């Protein structure tokens, strides 16, 4: 029984682990029975999950989290939460559970598949996102933007209870503002059916508004031009621009769109001429080196290695699509400075943690 369930959730993880649904290590999946939650380990990809890689968690132990008196300071709070989560990991499994494990645990459905598709974020990141959900998906739960981690999980947990009190059942479809979607169900067919409904409905809505579901990318710049930029970037940004990924120009979403966009491509792209002076001025104004460079005829992803450079460009393109699709629902609504700063600092923390290992 448990093996069948793990095989099913692995299959679903692969089906919804493609670029249409998630980028890099984004999104997470789980399955459960009354005692145990099996969740995707943090830092892994949906596409690479196997039945044996899921982290096994004791649900009774995990439920201590819901009664815990948590410190006001966010760093102390996240540390306490991490400890409780670690103590809930059952012996015999390795890996750190996803920070969204308590949210998965809060839904009683057997399978949960959480992703960040641009098709969905065109609505969740739009000014009229909430109204669009009410109109197009009356059965869904809409959750206003909250900093990721414990606070988000607890807020969604409360919303699920309120929804259940009103409707008699838990929501099978949850939209998180400027973040993504949670789909839950007791069977594989139920999960697939909900995703198909969400995608079909949204694609139709975009078509009706005359919004294309693909970003228009201009012709790539010449090799000689790219060589020149590489030289300047390396002089200005050093090892932070050791690798450069190149694309023709497209209209980027220049601002904090969602946690994933901030983590992989930073809140703001550098836009302008590629010169050492201007790049250094950006670094001192923003406090970070840019990951996305927008020139007159190109968009470049930069990073310390090929993978990070490519990911930055991939997220820039994803953000461009979200921005374009959001026109169907009143236009893109960026995150506030407070929300943006939480992620920027959070990323530093998790980066430091990774470096320390
Ligand atoms: Zn997420």
In CATH, the architecture of the largest domain is: 3-Layer(aba) Sandwich
- Our measurement of the CA-to-CA distance between the termini, rounded to an integer number of angstroms, reads 36 Å
The helix/strand class is alpha+beta
Major sheet: arrangement of strands: 3-2-1-4-7-6-5
Question: What does this protein structure show overall?
Answer:
There is one protein chain. The chain has two domains: 2-207, L-fuculose-1-phosphate Aldolase; 223-356, 3-Layer(aba) Sandwich (L-fuculose-1-phosphate Aldolase), CATH 3.40.225.10. The mean pLDDT is 93. The two termini are 36 Å apart. It has helices at 2-15, 59-62, 64-67, 74-88, 101-105, 118-124, 129-136, 150-167, 188-208, 223-237, 259-265, 276-286, 306-326, 337-356, and strands spanning 28-32, 36-39, 55-58, 111-115, 141-143, 173-176, 180-185, 243-248, 270-271, 292-294, 298-303. It is an alpha+beta fold and 357 residues long. It contains 14 helices and eleven strands. It has a seven-stranded mixed sheet, with helices on both faces. Helix content is 48%, strand content 13%. The structure holds zinc ion (ZN). Zinc ion binds at residues 114, 116, 179-180.
Describe, in short, the structure shown.
The protein has 357 residues and is α+β, with helices and mostly antiparallel strands.
Jot down its keywords:
13% strand, 4-stranded mixed β-sheet, 11 strands, L-fuculose-1-phosphate Aldolase, globular, 2 domains, binds zinc ion, alpha+beta, 7-stranded mixed β-sheet
Describe how the helices and strands are arranged.
Elements: H1 2-15, E1 28-32, E2 36-39, E3 55-58, H2 59-62, H3 64-67, H4 74-88, H5 101-105, E4 111-115, H6 118-124, H7 129-136, E5 141-143, H8 150-167, E6 173-176, E7 180-185, H9 188-208, H10 223-237, E8 243-248, H11 259-265, E9 270-271, H12 276-286, E10 292-294, E11 298-303, H13 306-326, H14 337-356
Parallel strand pairs: 5-6, 9-10
Antiparallel strand pairs: 1-2, 1-4, 2-3, 4-7, 6-7, 8-11, 10-11
Helix pairs in contact: 6-13, 10-12, 11-13
Bound molecules: zinc ion.
